[in-house]
Amino acid sequence: MATKRKSKGAYMISAVAEMYEIHPQTLRLYEREGLLKPSRTEGNTRLYTDEDLERLEFILNLARDLGVNIAGIAIILQMRERMEEMNRQMQNFVEYVRSECWPAFKLPRRVRQGRLCPSARRRRSSLSPRRVPRRIANRSVVELVASS
User: Fold this and answer.
1) Nearest to 60, CA basis, from 92, 22, 28
2) What is the 3-state secondary structure (H, E, C) of 12-32?
3) What's the CA gap between 27 and 18, in Å, rounded?
4) Contacts of range 65-71, beta carbons closer than 8 Å, 24 or more positions apart
5) Could you give the angle at which helices 13-20 and 24-32 cross, rounded to 10 degrees?
6) End-to-end CA separation in angstroms for the chain
7) How does pLDDT run across 78-124, given as a tens digit for each residue?
């Protein structure tokens, strides 16, 4: 859905309703149902940011083009937010694996086969390296993520 937005800023309810050709009461309904959360001025006027307008476009796409009702839209938005959070967590996990576990592959083969934890070797003296328990060392990264 193409919009007529040209600049960054905040838009009042009347301007948003006109831009998207919907009644202002529809925007109030979406806010009441928790689908939109516009900011407010000291005078309690609703102000819609560009992020709010992107969310509104997604809501209108679901409602107009796909025929999804308000309850369905709420569930879809909630699932979308959970997926974004899971994606952020997965990115953090990948960064952790790259920083902590990838150096283990650069260790000599005998050290890798002995399942010595590379991060423990850095923290402790070389005389007392900590071993990774076999139940963890023999599992793949995918299994570890699925079990947590």
Assistant:
1) 22
2) EHHHHHHHHCCCHHHHHHHHH
3) 11
4) 70/29, 70/30, 70/33, 70/35
5) 110
6) 40
7) 999 999 999 999 999 988 887 877 666 666 555 555 555 555 444 44
- Distance of alpha carbon 93 from alpha carbon 15, whole angstroms: 43
What is d(CA 49, CA 74) in angstroms, rounded to the nearest whole number? 20
Which pLDDT value is given to residue 1? 45
pLDDT band at 134 (very low <50, low <70, confident <90, very high): low
Tokens of 57: 């476009």
Query: Which tokens in the block code for residue 46?
Result: 């609703």
Q: Which residue has the tokens 């010595």?
A: 116
Residue 69 scores a pLDDT above 60: yes
Tokens of 51: 């992020």
Query: In whole angstroms, what is the distance from residue 44 CA to residue 52 CA?
Result: 17
With a CB cutoff of 8 Å and minimum separation 6, the contacts of 116 are: 107, 129, 130, 131, 132
Q: Looking at the DSSP assignment, which residues form a beta bridge with residue 40?
A: 46
Measured between alpha carbons, how far is 73 from 144 in angstroms, rounded to an integer? 33
* 11-45 pLDDT per residue, tens: 999 999 999 999 999 999 999 999 999 999 999 99
